[in-house]
Design brief:
The complex is a heterodimer of chains A (about 180) and B (about 280). By secondary structure, chain A is mostly helical. Chain A has one domain (about 10-175). Chain A has helices at about 10-35, 40-60, 65-80, 90-105, 110-135, 140-175. Chain A is globular. Chain B is built from eleven helices and no strands. In chain B, helix 3 (about 60-90) packs antiparallel against helix 4. Chain B is flat and about 75 Å long. The chains are: A mainly alpha (about 180), B mainly alpha (about 280).
Chain lengths: ~180, ~280
């Protein structure tokens, strides 16, 4: 496949985004099944693994807009499979583009630190949207909204404590193995 | 390769186009966020249930989905109520205990409206998903003339979820053969080892798979043709237009009905009133 592609997104990039979206969905489901549903430990691990995969994806594709594209695919799938995410789509897309911009601004996709900071902020802001959505859909019941907000915390700790360190280690190993190329 | 196999089309009693079902699910899911009156939500739930049953006629699956939803709802209510009880007991004698007691009461006080809000969305989504096949879905994506950047990742996603389920199974067997076990207990005791044994090989395999698949897609010029041809033509018929019209009419009517009713006090204003009363 020598030669320059006429598209900004190469076929390989698009295939990687689709495959990682599928992998993240299957792994999350597997962890939820093994972990026995919605408990703090399962949430911690599930979010950690998803973030680690997201870091690998962003480092592998390494182009402006990869977070937005990944978000678009996962939102379309959640919309079709679970009926959720329609209302939150536009703000989430704006957040993804903002974080893409931040990564590009702070050293680009080749700098692992910029990728990690961008992904951490992206995960944090998406959780804000989740709380907003639960406030909208369960606005009559303050107890439920509070508990939904509390349940988000172990998930974000999973992102920070498992996802980012593992993601960084994966990327280093994959770069060493030549699977993630340093262009 | 299982991922490249094409499933036969699922039977669809009403024969609605995928786009019609998609519009219905988007419209109903969106309007339910705005609705807050129990009567309107209940009426919408009944209307969408009729649509679900008539358009799928898969009674056992629908019953199973409802049983699952009921079980999940009861479980979540139980967990939330139990958590507030536990925290309230731990904070007994402090100022915070009274606040947690209020929260606990509010969970049981108005739990039906959020769940009632979920029902219409669930009905239209089940109607969409139970009639969905990969072939239909990809045909619709092509018919909608989605750009390559949207079409290709979605196509890969749909084709590869079953493939990954097989990969996860193979990986579990491989880990067992090496004398390790992957379970909730082992993940709790050795979380990092579990991730290393499962997620790392999965990520590497995915990246290798992506290389091969991208090469195959390039060779076959997937997503490049301006006017793609497809096996099953996706055409909107009269019944689809009628269904779309009904969707717009029903969602518009319930939104109008809701707008004529007096607004309920918001969560914040109710909380402020409760605090005022407590003072």
């Amino acid at each position: 496949m020598a030669g320059k592609s006429r598209f900004y997104w190469r076929t390989e990039d698009l295939v990687v985004v689709g495959l990682f979206a599928a992998l993240a969905k299957v792994v999350s489901l597997a962890i939820a099944l093994v972990g026995g549903g919605m408990n703090p430990f399962t949430l911690f691990l599930k979010n950690g693994v998803s973030t680690a995969l997201l870091v690998v994806l962003v480092a592998r594709v390494g182009k402006f807009g990869v977070l937005a594209l990944q978000l678009f695919v996962t939102h379309m799938v959640s919309l079709l499979m679970f009926g959720g995410g329609m209302i939150s789509f536009l703000p989430a897309l704006a957040i993804a583009l903002f974080c893409d911009g931040l990564i590009a601004l702070f050293g680009g996709y080749k700098r692992l630190a910029a990728v990690l900071a961008g992904v951490a902020l992206y995960d944090f802001l998406l959780r804000g949207i989740s709380i907003g959505m639960s406030m909208l859909s369960a606005r009559e019941n303050a107890g439920m909204v509070m508990m939904a907000a509390v349940m988000i915390v172990p998930g974000y700790f999973g992102c920070l404590l498992v996802g980012l360190p593992f993601g960084a280690k994966f990327v280093k190993e994959l770069r060493h193995a030549g699977i993630v190329r340093e262009v | 390769m299982r991922a490249l196999s094409v499933k036969s089309e699922s039977s669809d009693p009403c024969g609605f186009d995928f786009r019609t079902r998609l519009l219905a699910s988007l419209a109903f899911s969106t309007v339910t966020i705005y609705l807050s009156d129990e009567r309107i939500l209940a009426a919408l739930a009944v209307a969408t249930f009729v649509y679900l049953v008539a358009s799928t006629r898969r009674y056992r699956l629908v019953a199973a989905a409802y049983a699952l939803m009921l079980a999940m709802s009861l479980l979540s209510i139980g967990v939330i109520w139990g958590s507030y009880s536990l925290i309230g007991a731990m904070l007994a004698g402090t100022k915070m205990a009274a606040r947690f007691a209020q929260m606990k009461e509010s969970v049981l006080g108005n739990f039906h409206t959020p769940f009632l809000r979920m029902l219409p969305s669930m009905n239209v989504m089940l109607a969409l998903v139970l009639n969905l096949s990969v072939q239909k879905f990809t045909g619709t994506l092509k018919a909608l003339r989605m750009p390559r950047v949207v079409f290709l990742p979605l196509l890969v996603f749909c084709r590869f979820v079953p493939e990954f389920v097989d990969v996860v199974r193979q990986l579990r067997d491989a880990v067992r053969m090496r004398g390790f076990s992957v379970s909730f207990g082992s993940a709790l005791v050795h979380p990092f080892q579990t991730v290393r044994l499962t997620v790392v090989p999965l990520a590497v395999r995915t990246l290798r798979m992506a290389d091969n698949l991208a090469m195959a897609a390039e060779m076959r010029r997937v997503g490049y043709t301006a006017r793609p041809t497809h096996l099953t033509a996706s055409v909107l018929r009269r019944r689809d237009w009628l269904m779309m019209l009904a969707t717009v009419a029903i969602t518009g009517a319930v939104a109008f009905w809701q707008s004529t009713l007096p607004q309920k006090p918001s969560m914040m204003s109710r909380r402020a009133a409760m605090q005022e009363k407590a003072r």
